[in-house]
Amino acid sequence: MTSLSPSSTPAASARYWEVDALRGLMLVLMTVTHLPSRLTDPLGQPFGFVSAAEGFVLLSAFMAGLVYSRTAHREGVDAMRRAFWRRALKVYLAQAATLLFLFTIIAAVGLRIDQPAVKDLMSYYLAQPHEGLMFGLLLVYEPALLDILPMYIFFMLLSPWVLALALRHGWFGVVLASTAVWALAQFGLSEWIYGVVVRWTGLPVPFHEMGAFNAFAWQFLWFMGLWLGASRSAPGAQPIRLPGWLLLAAAAIALYGLYWRHHGLHGQAPFGANDHLNLLFDKWQLGPLRILNLVALGALAIGFGPALARRLPRLHWLEAMGSASLPVFCAHLVAVLLVLAFYGSDQTVRPWWGDVVLLMSVFSALYAVARATLWVDALKAARAGRLRVRG
């Protein structure tokens, strides 16, 4: 993964290339998982009972903690807060654009050819178009596949207050509160809050149409990543060193999770039809054994990542996709929605060579989006630099 220590060069201090490459990998895995093909099930949760979504959220939080804590140290808390708000607004505009794409082009195609995958995906909007549009733009109604960015926005809006508090008073209280909220989420906190809101406001959106991710559980992952990133920008931060016994335990847990996932009797459902036990690994609730699996993988990445990063060749195409993660993520949603509209959700509707052509075409488009984004960003940076020189 990364040495998780402050970089020594100015260019490297801006961001970690290893984290960008890992975020690019998470985007690749999400795309393969969301595109219906013969690779969807084998590459879903490929490293154990942990999906690309956990890695993407954790790494995004790490970068947010790293970048925005530097802003707070250098320019003050108010500047850090404004930077968070600008980023949240940018993510919201991306979510709104993707939502409108779903409600217009995808809806038109899906209804014209009577595509069940599209009709199921946006059933609430088709039944209540005015409420669906309004509550979708308010980030209350979250169709499947479009439910991770609203959670991301929620975390971005909370982060400046949490980060400012932690920078002043330390992270112990933040970690304790976040853990408590996660624990309450395992016992119905979201459903209880939803019930209270419905009683007081008459909110018409059904609970199951408000996104699969339990934000009260997933905030734990975000704020742990924020803490880890902020710790790397602290003055005098030292590389994280993990003891050998911990790495050995992490390896045992990770290998067992990997074996269970791919050689168990039930694939991605660790306990088969036993829903009660499956909650221990539940993705949407971020179950406790799922966190244990993720922590084990994270410990191995911290312990062995630096050596691997020095020896393996840099995959610049993955770094580019990770650096332009928001446009690439939205582009992957556009590709997935188009495939669902024209082909449906059947993973075997195309021959093998058709799946290969589809995946190659989609990833070529995603890489083109990443390169175009980075090119535009470089032009903006160059223009801003010239303006500073003239000023």
From TrEMBL:
Pfam families: OpgC_C (PF10129)
Residues passing through the membrane, by range: 47-68, 89-113, 133-158, 170-190, 210-230, 242-260, 291-309, 321-344, 356-376
InterPro entries in the record: UCP028704_OpgC
Top-level taxon in the UniProt lineage: Bacteria
Key words, A-Z: Membrane, Transmembrane, Transmembrane helix
Native organism: Variovorax guangxiensis
Keyword S-adenosyl-L-methionine assigned: no
Protein name: OpgC domain-containing protein
